[in-house]
Structure formats: C-alpha cells, structure tokens
Amino acid sequence: MVARCRWTSRLPLQTLLTAVLLGLSATPVLASSQPSHPSSPHGSHDSSESELICHTSNPEECYPRLFQATDEFQIVHDDQDLPKGLHVRMNIWTGKKEAKINVPGEDDPALEGLPVDQAVVVVDQDQPPPKVKVPKNAPKYDPVGKVKAPQEESVVFATVIKALRNGVFPEEKSFDEGLEELEELSHDIYYGLKIAEVPDVVKSLLCLMTGDGAHTSDGHISRDHQAASILASALQNNPSSLKEVVGAWPQLMQSQCPAAAEPLGKSIYSSFVPARNADASLANAASRVKAKISTINSLIKDDSIRKEFLASGGMESLLSVLLPDEAEWAAAQRNAGHLVVDNFLDTDMGAELGQWPTSAKLGDQECQTAESKLADGCWDYHVARIMKANKGDKDHWSRDLSSKLAAARKSGNGMGKGKRRGKGKGKGKGKGKGKGKGKASWIQEEL
C-alpha cells in the first residue's frame, strides 16, 4: 500500500540545498501535515477551490489557491495549497515542485536511472502570502480542471458502454472480457468521467454489483466484483465523476434492477455483507466484498450519500465484515477499517467528526450474543478482537481505529490527527530503484 503523506508547507530552495548536503538524492519527501489556509478549519479547502491568487494586474497570470490536479505533472506555485492524494515531485536544484493525480505503482520516467533514497524532511510553515485584489475581468477557474480526451477512443469501451446503457448483459465470454478492459480504462480520468456521466450505465454497474453471484464465464472474475471495481476506479480521485453520480443518485436509488425484489436503495448498502457474497472459494468471496467496500468508500465522500449510508444501516453491514476469523478476510477487513477512520474519525483524512459513532460502547459479553453482535456499540469489541489476533504488528490498522474510536466515544467529536498508517505489516514507505550516473534532480512522494 502506498504511504499516505502530507506536506507541512512549501519547501524553500535553501532548505532543499541543505537537504542535498545531508545526502538526499531523488528522495521521497514526507511531511507531517497538509498545509491549511487560515480561513479553512481542519484543513478544509472548500473556500479556496474558487479563490484566485494574483500577483500582477494581468488576469491571465492568476491561478487558484487550491492546486488543481490532472493526470499529468503540472507546476505547483509556492503559495498554492495541495489537496490530499497527489503524486508530488520536486527538483532539488531549482526548487520547482510539480504534482499530478497519484496512480499507485506507477513509475516516474523522470527518475529513470537515478538513485533513490529514503528520508524525511519537516519544514516549519511559512506565513501566508499577502492577498492581491483579483482583477474584475479575471477568468473563472474550474476547480476540476480540463479533462484531456485520448487521441482515439477505445472501441471495446464504446461496445461495453452501449450494452450497459441498454441494460443488456450477454452471457458470452466477450462481455466478461469487455468488463475487464473497462476496469482497466476506468482508472483514467477521462474514461472514468465517461462512465459516470451516463446514469443508465451507472445503474447497470450498480445492478451487477448488488447482484448475488452474477453470471461469469469460466476463467473470469465475477461480474459483481468487476462492476464494483469499475465504479470504485471511476470515482476515486475524480471529483467530476462523483459529481455526475451524485446528481443522478436519487433516481438511481429508486431504480429497480432486472429480477430484483427491491430497489437499489434497499440493497446497495448491504451488498458487501459476507453472507451475500458466498463463493466456492473463500478468497473470491472476500475479494468481492473488498471491491464493494471500495465503491462505497468512494461514494460516501459525498455528504448526502454518507448520511444516507448511515441512515440505511451501512455501519451494521460494514461491521459484519469484521466477524470472520479466516485469514482470507484480512484485506477486506482492512478496507472496512480504513473506511471508518477516513470518513468518520480522522479530520486529516477529510472526516467530519460527530456523525458517527452516536451510541455508547457495549460490554464484551453483550457483543458476543447473536442479538447484539452487530450493534453500533460493538465496534470496539470486534476491533479489539482483531487487534489481539495481530498483536505482533504495531502498524496494524486495528490499532489506529481502536484508539480513534475510543476517543470519539469519550468526546463525542472523534480524534482528529493520527499517525500515518501502512499496509499490513509494512510501514507504507515508497521505494525507488536505479543506478544511474550523474546528479539526481527530483524529490518525489506519493500521498
């Protein structure tokens, strides 16, 4: 898992040259926290999404206070704020910083052949720059940014989208192959938006995702798993896609899937319950649940969908994922734990405190009964059980969730900042390879 890192502030050239003298070269830069504009509590950038910074009277030289990421590296100005979730790199000789949307595991061609070390640089935050009055004719800035279309659109994409739009799911192997290619394309910001902007396509994917063991041809991933992966990828780090889905959400939740006994609104928040994902292979069942949790995690970034998730018993369904003891469920359980921390308990990850939990902790004996094991007050018990089973792993996700949950119940307002977590037993550090000659010129990090 890629480490989650945050910038404390912009890095001056003098500081970077000092870092070079200390032996840093092409080094991931990790810092303690995301910079926050004084008028934005808890690091929120809502007010800065449309705020412009102008250092001259020329409106064309203005730029937004909140950096707008695309899938290509762009220069980050010294007085811009960086949102979470970006791939950032810095030239240690010029002090120039660039950022783009993070793609886990992607190699940076600019680092080809350069030695990469591990280091941490923490810099004191500078005073915010003085405000400059924005000219009357300054252009309005799109907080999403321009989405670049490919030179030639995928033929398979068009074919699968047409089938999904019409709600037709052929049982042929070619359709499963098409879904697999659609999942690959959905990571791209352009194709992700193309998927999300057609309500009928989103409905079909949701219907496949909520189906109980949807048909799959031999040798292919189950269609409910594929549909969940497509939606999760299309929505992740793609605010335009989420906005499109949110706009159609009320109608989608009232929609009825073919052969379904209830509307989507009644089934989507229980689609990841282990009992609904029974499979001949335990690993396949857990993998299907993991993918569906990722979709829900992307959807509840929207305030209205998050409130609907809570009101519809989503937390009870999520708690059921923590019940199995088999090792195959570890990854799905980690996804569930991260969803809870990121959306309800940790302001650094964008959580709005006070939405959950809303009840007191229950006793261990009560949480072992069939009647109460999925109660809101039993999250502590099940997290503690998992933490005990992984007591040798000090970086296990259950430790962070346990401490934040205890503080949230005590204060009623959550726990705010927490330490960076890694994946499993790892510590979430980025890695780099290369033996190239010459001077290394880039510091990079994945947030």
What's the SSE pattern?
HEEEEEHHHHHHHHHHHHHHE
| CATH fold-level assignment of the domain at 149-272 and 282-312 | Leucine-rich Repeat Variant
Give helix % range. 25-40%
- State the separation between the terminal residues, measured CA to CA: 11 Å
Protein name: Nucleotide exchange factor SIL1
Signal peptide: 1-31
GO cellular component, one term: endoplasmic reticulum
Keywords: Endoplasmic reticulum, Protein transport, Signal, Translocation, Transport
SSE layout and pairings?
Elements (H helix, E strand, L loop, with lengths): L12 H9 L30 E2 L9 E2 L9 E3 L9 E6 L5 E5 L53 H12 L6 H13 L3 H8 L2 H12 L12 H13 L3 H16 L9 H4 L14 H18 L3 H9 L2 H6 L10 H16 L18 H4 L11 H11 L7 H15 L30 E5 L1
Antiparallel strand pairs: 1-2, 3-5, 4-5, 4-6
Helix pairs in contact: 2-3, 2-5, 3-6, 4-6, 4-7, 5-6, 6-9, 9-12, 12-15, 14-15
Can you describe this structure?
Keywords: Endoplasmic reticulum, Protein transport, Signal, Translocation, Transport. One of its GO terms (molecular function) is adenyl-nucleotide exchange factor activity. Residues 392-402 have a biased composition (Basic and acidic residues). Interacts with KAR2. The chain has 447 residues and is mainly alpha-helical. Among the domains are: 60-101, no CATH class; 149-272 and 282-312, Alpha Horseshoe (Leucine-rich Repeat Variant), CATH 1.25.10; 342-412, no CATH class. It has 15 helices and 6 strands. A 4-stranded antiparallel β-sheet has the order 3-5-4-6, with no helix packed on it. A two-stranded antiparallel ribbon has the order 1-2. A hairpin with a 5-residue loop joins β4 (86-91) and β5. α2 packs across α5, α5 (199-210) packs across α6 and α6 (223-235) runs parallel beside α9 (282-299). The model is unreliable at 1-46, 117-125 and 414-447 (pLDDT under 50).
